[in-house]
Specification:
With 253 residues, this protein is an alpha/beta fold. The chain has one domain: Rossmann fold, CATH 3.40.50. The protein has 10 helices and 10 strands. It has a 6-stranded mixed beta sheet, sandwiched between helices. Strands 2-1-4-5 form a 4-stranded antiparallel beta sheet, with helices on one face. Helix 3 packs across helix 4 and helix 4 crosses helix 6. The longest helix has 14 residues.
């Protein structure tokens, strides 16, 4: 990889109780790229994403082995502030989850909780975050209306803006376009490309074609095992493993 490595996953295993769902995974996430991680259902991809900011800790039956390094530091170390980790590694989920607040306050809440109180600063953060999420032009004249008043595609972009407002280092999207219309999906995909100057983006795409369109690097995971990981153009044109070829050509999945 040409870019500096942002996240290193080393000999990572994940268990729910006695059931193992990720097996000895080794994967580098380059900085300032869009990295797609895909595979069929029940391949452990959502579990992997939730592990990267320790949302998986919320499951009392979860157990991990191995290391995940963010900027060279193990996120499972006792000294890690998990709240700060989740600010640095933000996540956008499949179903939009706007807060029961105005559009403005959906974005401003996180910065306020981080200690930013000056209205001028909050105004700047709200505007910049909405612009990065390709939503500003659609809502700039109605920031005081409820977030729930937006369409589904707009709500998802609002959720992306809410994560961006915290100035994360990594943004994760777990099938964030799966329920959206093609126009909303295209707007999100266009905004992602513009964000790589500032952020590292990890996405579980909602289909194989999205990975091909958007990502720089793609990792194919099957039943919790990494099968192949390379530049997206190479993986789609020259897959080395028959299982990769079968998946990207729709023979299973």
């Amino acid at each position: 990889m040409d870019n500096k490595v942002k996240i290193e996953i080393r000999d990572f295993n994940f268990f729910y109780g006695e059931k193992q769902v990720i097996f000895n995974l080794n994967l580098d996430i380059p900085a300032n790229e869009i990295v797609a991680v895909f595979g069929p259902a029940n391949s452990g991809i959502t579990t992997l994403l939730r592990s990267l900011n320790r949302l998986s800790d919320l499951n009392p039956n979860a157990r991990t082995e191995g290391e995940i390094l963010l900027n060279g530091k193990n996120i499972f170390a006792a000294s890690v502030n998990v709240t700060e980790l989740r600010r640095k590694v933000g996540m956008v989920f499949e179903v939009p989850t706007p807060l029961p607040l105005s559009i403005y306050d959906n974005i401003a809440l996180g910065p306020r909780l981080s200690g930013i109180t000056a209205k001028s600063k909050l105004d700047d953060i709200v505007a910049e975050s909405l612009k990065m999420a390709a939503l500003w032009e659609e809502v700039k004249d109605r920031l005081n209306t409820p977030g729930f008043s937006l369409s589904g595609g707009q709500q998802q972009r609002l959720c992306i803006a809410r994560v961006l407002a915290l100035n994360p280092e990594v943004v994760m999207l777990d099938r964030a376009c799966s329920g959206l219309d093609p126009i909303s999906t295209a707007k999100i995909e266009e905004s992602l490309r513009d964000l790589t100057d500032r952020f590292t983006i990890i996405m579980a795409p909602h289909n194989v074609k999205q990975a091909a369109r958007v990502s720089d690097t793609t990792a194919f995971i099957l039943m919790g095992e990494l099968i192949e990981n390379k530049k997206t153009v190479d993986l789609f044109n020259f897959p080395e493993d028959q299982r990769t070829y079968d998946y990207i050509t729709g023979r299973f999945g």
